[in-house]
Please model this.
Amino acid sequence: MTTSDAFISIRSVSKFFGGFRAIDDVSLDIGQGEFFSLLGASGCGKTTLLRMLAGFESTSSGEIFIDGQPMSEVPPHRRPVNMVFQSYAIFPHLNVQDNIAYGLRKQKLPVARRLEMVEEMLDLIKLSGYGSRKANELSGGQRQRIALARALILRPKVLLLDEPLGALDKQLREQMQLELRALQRQVGITFVFVTHDQEEALTLSDRIAVMSGGRVLQVDTPAGLYEMPKTREVASFIGNMNFFRGTVRRNGSAMAAVETEGLGTIPIPVEQITKPDGAPVQVALRPEKFALSATRPDGTLAVEGRLRTAAYLGERSHFYVSIEGKAEPVAVSTPNISRGLDRADSQSGQALWLSWSPDAIVILDTD
Amino acid sequence: MAETSLSKSRTARGAPRAFGARLTRYLRRSETARGYLLMSPTLLIMTIGIVVPFIILLVISMWTRQGFSFDTTLTLANYARAWNEPIYGALLARSFWISGVATVATVALCYPMAYYVAFHVHRNKMMWLILMTLPFWTSYLLRVFAWKVILGYEGVINSGLSAVGLIDAPLAFLLYSPSAVIITLAHAWAAFAILPLYVSLEKIDKSLLEAATDLGDGPVARFLRITLPLSMPGIIAASFLIFIPTTGDYITPALLGGPDGAMIGNLIQVQFGAVNNWPMGATLSIVLMLWIAALALAFLLVTCKVQERIA
Amino acid sequence: MSAGTYIRRPNRALQVYAVIFLIVLYVPVLFIPLFSFNDAVHVRFPLKGFTLQWYTELWSRQALWNSLWNSVRVGLVVSVLSTVLGVMAARSITRYRMRGKGPLVGFIMMPLVIPGIIFGVALLVLLSRMGVPLSLYTVGLGHLIICMPFAVATLLPRFEGFDPAMEEASADLGENGWWTFWRVTFPMVMPGIVASLLLTFTISFDEFIMAFFLTGTDPTLPMYIWGQLRFPKEFPSVLAMASLILFISFVLVFIAQWVGRMGLDTEDLGVPDT
Model:
C-alpha cells in the first residue's frame, strides 16, 4: 500500500512516558474500509497507539494523519474517530437509548429522527426493545454491542476497538467475532482493533501489525504472518514454531540449500535466500507441517527420531520427538483424521520418521 | 512559533491569543500544571485558613503582654513560663490523661460492636450502621448537655436513686469531675471509633479466618493472630480521630468538668477571654500542638513495634 | 458466602452486647425530647406531667429564630463552598498524574488532626491583626476550613471509583470538557456531592468552638444554646428547641443515607453478595 491511498497514516510516531519509550518510531498505513489489528502482548504499546489515534495520548514526535488531515492539534472530541473501550464505558446513569444517542446532542436533530436512528442501531446490534433498559441490567455481550452502537451511530471515519472481546467468555467471544466481522463488512467503516489474542486477530483482520516493545515487528495479512513470519519473535508469537540453527550453502546462482541442525541439508529455491554462502540463518517449521510415520516415507525429506511424549487433544494430537543433532525435541501436531487411538498411545522411546515438504520451510534472519 | 500558529489559525487577534494558545498547549502537555490549576482555589483557601494563621500565631506567641497592649519584641518568655509554672504542665498532663483514657475506653467499647456488625450481621448492615451513627448527627453541645442532665445533682441518676431510696444525698462525684468528662467524651465520640473499626474489620477476607482455623487456631488465637493485627489500621485511625480533638475540647470540661476536670482547652480560652493574655494563649496552643504531634509519632512508633512483635 | 459458615455462626454474647451498646448510645440523646414534654422547670425524676408549653413558648423567642437563621445561612454557604472546592480538589487528585499529590492531600486533611480550638484561636489572631471585624463571615471562614477535609474525604472515594474511560468515552463521542462534566462526571458523582453537602452542613450547623472564638454580634445556634445553658430557668425551652433540632437531624440523616444508598452498590458497602 502506498502513502497516497492510505486512509490512516502514522508517520514516525514516538511516545515517551518520562524516560520510558512506549511507542518507538512507528510508521503504519491503514487503508479505507480495512479491518486492521494491532496484535501484541500486554505492554507492547498497542493500546497506547490506539489511544493516540483517538487523541487521548499526545504524540511525543511524529504525526498521525486521518483522511489526509494532521491530528496532533485536534482534541479527542473533534476527531472523526470513535472508540469502543475495553471496559465499554457504558454510562451507568443513562439507559440504553440515551447511551446510544449520547453523541447526537450536537447534531440538534428532531426527537423523532433521533429515536429512529437509535432504533436502527438497536436493530443492527440485534437488541431491539432494549432501549429503556438500565446499564446495570445488561450482560457483558450486550454492553459490548451497545458500546459499538454508541460509536457507530456517529458514522465515524474510523472505529477504534480496544480489546472489546476480552471480557467475554470463550463461546460468546467466538460468536461476537463473527458478528463483528459481518458488521464491519456491512457498515464499511475502517476498524482498528487492538488485541493480545492471536487467534482473534487472525480470524478477524484483513491485515495485522504485530507489536513488541513499542515497535511494529511486521505488518501482513493473517496468512502471510502465519506462513511467512520475518523474525523469530513474530514466528513464536503467532502459533507454535520449531526453530533450527542452519548455515547457507550456495552452489553458484542456480541452487541453494540450508544445512540444518537435526534436519540435514534442505534445498531452498534460490530467490528465497539473499545471504551469502556460509551465513548463519534460522530455519523454522510449524508443528503441523510435519508428518509422522513408522517407516521411512518415499520421495520426501525425512529424518528419524524417537518419541518423547504424546498428548491427545481431541481434534489433533501433539507429539514431542527428539532427533539427533538437536537438543530440544521437535513439536509435531497431526490432525486426528481417523480414530488413531494407537498413535496417541504410542510408547515413549519408540522410533518414528518425521517428514516435511521443503516449501513449508521458513528462513528467518538470525538475531 | 507564534508567527506560524497565528497565520495558521486565520482568526488572529494578536498577542493575547498566541499567549492563550501557548498556555493551552502547555496545560495539555503537563498534567501536574492542570492538576494544580484545578486545585488552586482549594489550596488558596486552605493556605489562608491554615498556614497564615499559624505563622501569626507563632509570632504572637513570642510577644508579651504589656498592660492592655502587647510588647512586640520576640522572646521565648511565654514558653519558659509554660515550661516552668506547674499549672500549665499539670493541665496538659490532665488533658492528655483524660483524653487518653476516653480514647482507650471508646475504642475498647466500640470494637466488639464494630466486630459484631462486620462479622455477625448478614442482612441490613446499612441499617445497623445508621442506627449506630444516628445519635452523633445531633448537636455535640446537646449530647454533652444530655449527660449533664443524667449525671447532675438533680439529674436522672441522682433523682432516680433517691426516689427509690438508695441514697440520701446526691452523688457528688458524678458531675463536675474528670470521670464525668471521660464518660461524656467516650459517649460523644463513639461514632469516630465505630466507623473506622467497622471499615477495617469488614475489609478482612473471611477466607483468611477460615484458613487460620484450618491451620489449627481456636477462636482466641485466630482473633489475636489474624483479626486484631489486620484491624490495626482501624484502631490507629480511631485513636487519632478521638484523641486529637478531645485533648483540645472545651465544651465538655466546661460543662461537666468542674475545677478538677478542667483541661488545657479551657485554659487557652481563658487567655483569650477573661485574662486577656493573647500571647500566652498562642504559646499554649502551640505547645499543645507540639505535644500532640510528639505523642502521635510515639504512638505510631509503638504500634509499629508491637505489630512487628506479633507478626 | 452464606450466613451459616463456621466463622459467621451466631454469637449470643455479642448480640447481647450490641443491644446494651445501642441502649447506652440512645438513652442520653432521648432524654432531651422526653424532658421537653415534662411539665416542670427542673430536669429531674419523677416526671411531672405532659405539656406543650415549652414548644408554644418557643415561637415567641425571636433571638432563637435569629440564631437558627444565622446557622442555616452559614451552613448553606459553607456546605456549598466546601463541596465545590472539594469537587475540584478530589477531581484534580484523582484525574491528574500530579507531583506532590501525597503532601497536598495531607495538607487538606490537616484540620482533622489539629484540635478545633487551635484553629479557632489562630484564625481569631489573624483576623484581629488584619482588623477584620468578627461576623458571620469569619465564622463561615472557620467552618470552611474544618469542613474541607470532610468534603474531600467524602468525595475522593466517589472520584477514585470513577472509571476514567467514562470521560474519555464522552470526549470520544464528541463532547468537550465542560459538557462531559455536566453530562457524565457530575451525574455519576452526584451521590457523593449530596453526601458531602449534608455532612458539611451538619458539621457547620453543630460547630461550637470556632464560632465561640469567631462570632461577632450575630450568634449562631450553638452559641445561643450555650448562652441559654447558663440560665436554668430556660432549660425546658432549650430542651424543646433541641428536640426539634434532633427531629430535623434525624430526618436529614435518613435522607442522606437514602440518597447515599441509591448510588451505592452492595459492593461499595463491602456487603458480600450471596
Q: What stands out?
A: DSSP finds nine helices and 20 strands in chain A. The first strand of chain A starts at residue 6 and ends at 17.
